[in-house]
Structure formats: C-alpha cells, structure tokens
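S1.2 Input.
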Amino acid sequence: MSSQTRPDLTRLLTPQSIAIIGASTNLTSISGQPLRLMLDAGYAGKLFPVNPRREEVQGLKAYASAVDIPEPCDVALLAVSAAQVPQALRDCGKAGIPFAVTLAGGFEEIGEPGMAMQRELAAAIKDSGVRVVGPNCIGVANIATRAFCAFGGALYDKSLEPGPVAVVSQSGGVGLSMMAHAHARGVDTRYLVSCGNEADLTFFDFCHTLLAQDDVKLIMAYLESSTEGLKLRELGQRALELGKPIILLKVGNSGAGRRAAGSHTGKLTADYTLFKAAFREGGFVEAQDLNELADVAKLVLGGRFPEGRNIGVLTGSGGWGVMAAEAYERNGLQLPLPTPQTVEKLKAVVADYGSRGNPIDTTPVYGKQHTVLEIIVDEPNWDMLHVRSAGGPILKEWLPKFLDIAKHSTKPIIVGWAPSPGLDLDVKHELEKNGIYCPSFAADAGRAVGLFTDFAMKRRRLQARGKAPAVRPTMQQPLRLEGSGALAEHVSKECLTRYGIAATKEALLSLEAILAMNQSPVSFPVAVKLASPDIPHKTEADAVRLNVRSLDELHAAAQAVVNGGKTHVPHARIDGVSVQEMASGVEMIVGAVNDPHFGPYVMVGLGGVLTEVLHDVSHRFAPVSPEDARDMLAELKGAKILDGYRGAPAADIDAVVDVIVRLSWLIHDHRDRIAEIDINPLFVRAAGSGAVAADALVVLVQSPDKT
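S1.3 Output.
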C-alpha cells in the first residue's frame, strides 16, 4: 500500500470528541472503565455517553444512539456486545463518525461459531464507511491528551507521562504490560494501540502512521502472526529510512509461509526463518522480553548511534571488566586495544599493576577514573564506551564530572551501574535523563547494546548506499520458461548457465546410445544420472552413479540408473541418461524460493548430508548485492571451511558470492514463473578457480494457460 492510499488516522489518535456507545455506570466493567478513566485523568475533549436506558451516565447526559448526539464526534468507542456491534457501526456511519474502536470479542477469534458475526461485522463496516479498530481489542489511548478509548489497569496509573514511544500490539494485555513496564524503567509512551482482530485497520496501518509522527521516535510492538510478509518488509524499510526502529516481540513463529517444498532449499526454510530475514533487512530490533524492549529503547532515545562495533570498557573492578567484555563479545561486538598514543597517556594515571588494555582496570587509582575517561573518550579504536560507575559516598561527586565529560562526546556511553539495586536512584535517574543507559548486569548490557548496534549498522549502510537499487551483474542470454513443475536436470542447468552460473560438462544420451558407444563423451571419471522430469530427487530413486572410471562401468551404470528410475516411478518420462564430469571442491547448497507471502529469497549453506541436520544456512531476500552475499557466507557456522581448514586451500569465495547474486536475480526476474531453484551440490574450487553446479533443480509454477 502506497503512502497516498494509507488512511489518515489523526482524528483517531488525537480525538477532540468521543462517543462511548454502551457507556455504563459500573465503574469496574469494560463498558464503564473508559469514561471513568477519561473523567479522572482530565481529558479536555468532549465526551458523549450513549445508553438508551439511562438519561445520565457518570454525571454526563446520555443519548439513545449515536445519531442523537448533537455534535460531530471523531471516534466512537463501542463498549457493547458482539451482537450489537453491526447496528452500532451503522449508526456511527449515519452520524458521520469516521472511526470506531470495537472492544467486544466473539468474532472469528472463537472459530466457526464467530464466523457469522465476523461476516456481519464486515458488512457493517462496508455499509457504514466507518474505519474500525478491532474487534476484540483493549482500544487506543493517547497518553498526552488522556484520550483513553480503551480499558485496562495500567491506564489508572496517575504517574503516566507522554514520551516519544508508540506501542502497537496484536494483544491488548501485552500492549498494556509493555507500556507499564517501559514506564517503570523510565521509557514513556505517547500512543498505545491494540489492533485486536484487525477486521479493518491493521498493524501495518498503525505502524506506518506512527512512524510518520514527529512526536514518535520509536515503536515498541508485539506481533503474533501475519501472512503479509511483503508489507512487513515494506514497513521495515520505512523504519530504517526514518531511523526509527520498531523494537518488537515476535511470537507464534509458525504461521506464515508454511509450504510443501519439492527442493532441499524449501525443506531448509522454516516459517520463522523468513520473519527473521525480514527483521534483519529492515528497521526492526527483535527483543526477547520486556526488559530488552526497554533497554534498547533507552539506547535509541539516548540519540547517539555508534559508527562501528568496537567498544572500550573502563572499570574499577577487574571481575566486572571481564564479565562486560565477555557479554559484549557474545553479542557481536569487538574489544580492540587502544592506540599506542592512548596507552602512553594512560601510563601517567594507571599503574603498571593496573590494566591499560581493554578492559581498562583502574582499581589501584579508582579516584582518578575521570582522568582516565577524559583520555579514552576520543579513542579512535572505540565506537562506544562502557564505564563502571562509582558507588557509595563518592557517587554524587562522580556524577557531575562524568556528565560533563559525556556531553562533549558523540559516542554512546553505557554506565555499568555499581550501586545495589534500589540505592541512589536519584543519581541513576539523572543519568538516564541525560540519555545514558545504566544496566546493572553485564549480560543485559551485552544483549541490548548488541541489538542496538545491529540497528545502527543497518542505518549506516542505508545512509552510505542511499536508495540505489541492487546492481545487476552481466547476464548471458534471455531465458524463456515454458511448462510447469520440476524441470529435468539438464534443462535446469541451462537456466543457470543463461544467468552466468557455471555447470558441469555433460552429455545427454539415450541408454541405447551409451551401450553402443566405445568412448565416453566426457573424460573419466564421470557421474551418471537418470534424466527425468518426474524424478527430481535422483538419489532417492537409486538413479545416480558417481566416480565411474571405465567404459564397462559406464555401460553398467547407465543401465542401473534407468532400472532404478523405472522401479521408483514406473511410468516416469525418461529424457535419457546424463554423463557428467566429476567435480570436486567444497560442497555447498545454494537455492532460491519465491515465497507467496514474503516474495523471492535466496539461501546458502554448506552441502553434504549434514546440511538438513545442522540447518546451517543463511537467507536474504532477492535480489542481493555482493556485500549481502558475503554477509550470508560469514553467518554460516562452518564458514571457516571456506577459508581453508587444516591445510586445505582457501575456497573461491568470490565465485560463491557471484553465484548467490546471479541466482538471486534469476528468481527475482522470473518470480512469476519460478517457484524454487536448488543447486545441490555447488562445488567451490580453490581460490581463483571458480565454482560449478553439479546438480540443479528448477521448479516452475503452474503455467498461466493451465490456471
């Protein structure tokens, strides 16, 4: 959906007048809470309770229906049963109310019994023209204006203050908890949105609108499931462009993308894998719990983004320094040594029995920590700093000196909080007010700073390359795809070679021609494979023979693969027998799939029988750049094998990168015709010698003339 067609939600998020349909005098009920909350909190807009059985509700004049309200309203809060919702919506449409927040459950979320109500709801939305939040939600709240078109215990907190955060949640209860927990950690929310069943307005509608708000610096989100993979990727791209992360909890990780795959590539891609790939490429930060949500939010709201992954650690305790260093390294950060110039300056302050490396341990000269900080704050080898705070009676003296040094630096500075939890909170709050993240535990710091740095690096890459599209490599010949289903191996390889991906030399011959020949068409040793579009996985049909070294062996192998194929699939079409050169090198698998929800993507992993067992694969959406392809290889647990292991020569990584890029363009260009591609194995030769596809499978979607 383009920005021109997205709904304008201004009146929903900042309403000046609200109708409460079904308003109740029971102050603890769902229908009584919203009005009570707004009256107690001091909502300055106009409130119009609707209850046909009462002349007054909670001290305000009541109206029989929405059409009886004498003034226009921005929002109607529907606090009525599911059966009453359709008529209430139609009344709102007649009254010219543009938005309705529907709290009631009892629709499709309860299964078949609720489907009739869901259909009635859809018809009422269409008839009325009202844009609907929910149903089955806790509502929408603007903390700044106290427009609480919602209910829930967290909204009764009188200490709530508006901040630069928006919460968007597919669960009302989790959304309230996210807001409340963040508030307790010093991170305040301005907007709270519970999406509910998304019968009309969706998670994506709200996120796009809130990202565009000047008073929102980040979104905290809870996402259970979505089949809108392309919309998720679009949202992530927008968040990255704006530099406003969406920090989210993702659960229900088996929803979208479930498919029956004919290739190894498809088997190696679980549903959640594609969500992870979307989170990786876009402006998402995936947290594991509410603590991480708040911690990463603090780092973002601090306004200082690192230029790289290097961090320096300054501590007054050797043990805490080691714990911090290990926590950061576990989460993808590096701790390089300071420059010789910095070390020389440190000699005047840190004694020989201290540490001038990284971490820097000032234990012997703890009172001179500020002097050390002044020396290292501009250290060029470090993109950010972790500083252990003072504690005890000198803490309040330490604070102003630290803040004075910190404010002159553009680097993120994390303060490892030394005092016991609950002590000296006024000092901690002063640090946080100045944008300083103050974790008490090294493990928390490592995870949060690692996630924050991942986002910062994505942001820097986007800024460096701009919005320029991926550069297409030089291709060989145009490709025309006909038919449907799995293509035979030799046809699949032809698709690859037209996109510049090398394949093994081969000759496709009839069994009779092979049995009659007195010389192999390909130099020995050779591989012998049955060529049949009905047998995509030849090894399962006992239709492959490897390392065939003589003419007699070739004759026997050809007969054996034909027999194996006929036994496995008696009526299989047989195109012939393929005689191929034997390839060698590091064995890899490279594949591509056009996912119906997320679009085309590529994957790469080390080949062999352990690929599916270990699931050591990496994914990116197509098309990819050479830089993306190198990152994919670096993510593999077995990546060291490509560098040369135990005396083996280094593999041709440039060639693998080129194959990944070209395959990504193949699936991207022909996503309307190709369902999936499998190169297994791809043999990667020694550096400078290239890579070659030894086996390939291209699966086409149903031909247009057969749909």
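S1.4 Remarks. The domain at 153-301 is CATH 3.40.50.261 (Rossmann fold).
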